[in-house]
Amino acid sequence: MSEEDLDLSPPLTIESASLSALYQGLNNAQDGIALYAKTVSSINAEINRRFTGNVEAAYKAAGKEHGAVKGELHDGFSYKADVSKKVKWDQPKMKAIAADLEWAQIDHIFEIKFSVKETIFKALMPGPIVDSLTDAREVKYGDPKIELVAAE
Questions:
Q1: For residue 69, how many other CB atoms are within 10 A of its CB?
Q2: pTM over 0.85
């Protein structure tokens, strides 16, 4: 959807539009996005329904479980398919393994990211640990999100 689709009569622009026009234009744009998203989702579902068998055969022929494959279809079309791979580690088992290792091995083998839950940090009594944690703590705030609300 473009600026022209917002039903702003010339020479009205977004910069000079009334709050009512901005509000209505935003609602119209969001409705359009939702409709297009639903259409895209339906089309993608149909493409997947039609060609899942082709893709599964291509992965089997390539001896792959993940990664990218390509194949030819008909009417001058081809397809590209990609299956991502995500590895999830059992945290209690990983902690048990690490408990039996020296720190140098742990540091070499494992990716470790330390953090402290805010509720625990705020509940700690002042002292050297809180001072050290405060020194290691960085707080970042996001940009304000401003929403236009129509009067009821």
A1: 20
A2: no
